[in-house]
Amino acid sequence: MSTSNTIRISISYDQQIVAEGIAAVLLKDKRFEICGLKPNKRDQLTNGSLTIDFWILEFCNMSACQIEHIRQIRKANPGLKILVVTSPLLRSAMVTLMQLINGLVIRSCSSDKLLTAIYEIEETGKYLSPKAVRALFEENGDGNLVKSELTSREKEILSAWLTCRDNAEISDRLNISGTTVRTHLKNIREKFGCANQIQMMTYACKENLLSENFKPICPNCRCYCYSTPN
What we know:
Layout: E1 7-13, H1 16-26, E2 32-39, E3 54-58, H2 64-76, E4 81-86, H3 91-98, E5 103-106, H4 111-124, E6 127-128, H5 130-138, H6 152-163, H7 167-174, H8 178-192, H9 197-206, H10 219-224
Parallel strand pairs: 1-2, 1-3, 3-4, 4-5, 5-6
Protein name: DNA-binding NarL/FixJ family response regulator
Organism: Mangrovibacterium diazotrophicum
Keywords: DNA-binding, Transcription, Transcription regulation
């Protein structure tokens, strides 16, 4: 990885003209160095011997095979920052993908949004574009991620669970026993059904349960409960 302030970026693409447009946008910032533009191939970047900081993947549409390829990339290169540029996804695919990558933007996004994504990933490690956030919250109509509403105490427990290191820290913060913490977490998981931590994070963001200095996915999630992003 780069040891200077320069951010070394490689771009893989389905459509070369889109990749060239992305490169042109990035070159406006002198901190970015474009190390290559290559068509998407399944044998790319799987040897773990990379000399780049960022990998941007442009896909016309995501498939299960592409997600599995990204999974292998992540396994071989755990420190690599990955930003995906693609068409809108179903929430189920997005939730799976966000566990493997650092950021996702929709192909119709502006150049400013693309730059914001990279800056945010550099600062906080994660970015999800406003349109993708909307899909996470609204795909099922009313956007509810839980089978039944959480109680105020369960919301408090959920917030602590997402921000504390372990159950012991939750106990100390809320002055309750470890058994009580485990019981609340069990009830919360039952209300979420098969939801994973990413979905629980998005719910916490939408309900504004988290402290202002904690960003589980990106600032767009927190803003969503106040206004609908464009």
